[in-house]
Amino acid sequence: MLEVELFGVLQQAAGDRRLQLDTLPDEPTAAAVLAVLGRDYPALAPYLQRVACAQGDSLIRQDQRIDTSRPLVLLPPVSGG
Amino acid sequence: MSRMTDQPLDMDQLLRETENDACGALVVFGGIVRNHHGGKGVTGMRYSAYGPMAEKVLTELEQETLEKFPVSECRIVHRTGDLAIGEASVLVVVRAPHRGDAFDGARYAIDTLKLRLPVWKHDFYDDGSEGFQDGVPLETAAQSDEGTRS
Asked: What CATH number is given to the structural domain containing B93?
């Protein structure tokens, strides 16, 4: 099981701030999680190509294995300032 | 003041925190909520952030600005929550012995913030519509290593 946190336009697309994925590949990478999300939540699919992934306070590469005990945070393009 | 806050930004406090008698130059950049975007009238904005990472990004950006430029002080604060037209969403304060360096440092800090800070603007328009502004995709460390960040 993996908790996924959404920000910005992703919250709007999914209609929620958090999702829970119950079925994942073994030792998933961030990219593998994004593939599952795109399949299970079609409303998110158009946005996933431009998201960055983070765990805790750090960005992670999409080819990086994630720690499934911590939320995976999805960050759409940013517009601060 | 923490760097990310849902309270109105306090410029006087930032000026007090950065007082430095060795600096002959003070540059303040303020980002202000304006009343139009993309040809539409804007009545207000909501800023949201991924807090743990945003605080870290601003702390590191202050330090990076101090290391890249001959400036003595750099403080950056960013607002979250609902903002009215005319309110400040971000303040960058840079002090340096000389004005050119202070301008350069402040410019670098705000330009880099826009590429790295996990914050999102949601516009409310005067025709009753609303929506998130499109932004800049965050780069991962791997992409930065390939030299895509200038």
From this structure: 3.90.1170.40
Chain A segment 13-52 residues within 8 A of B by beta carbon are: 50-52
**pTM of the entire predicted model:** 0.93
Q: Is B3 within a domain?
A: no
* Structural domains of chain B, count: 1
The nearest alpha carbon in chain A to B139 belongs to: A52
Our separate counts of H helices and E strands in chain A read 3, 5
What CA–CA distances, in Å, run from B71 to A51, B76, B111? 34, 14, 17
- The average pLDDT across A28-54 equals 97
Are residues A78 and B47, on separate chains, in Cβ contact within 8 Å? no
B134 in contact with A at a CB cutoff of 8 Å? yes
Q: What is the pLDDT of residue B1?
A: 67
Total residues found in chain A within this entry: 81
ipTM: 0.95
In chain A, what are the domains? 2-75 (3.10.20.30)
Tally the C-alpha atoms within 13 A of residue A30's C-alpha that lie toward its C-beta: 20
How many residue pairs from chains A and B have C-beta atoms closer than 8 A?
Answer: 96
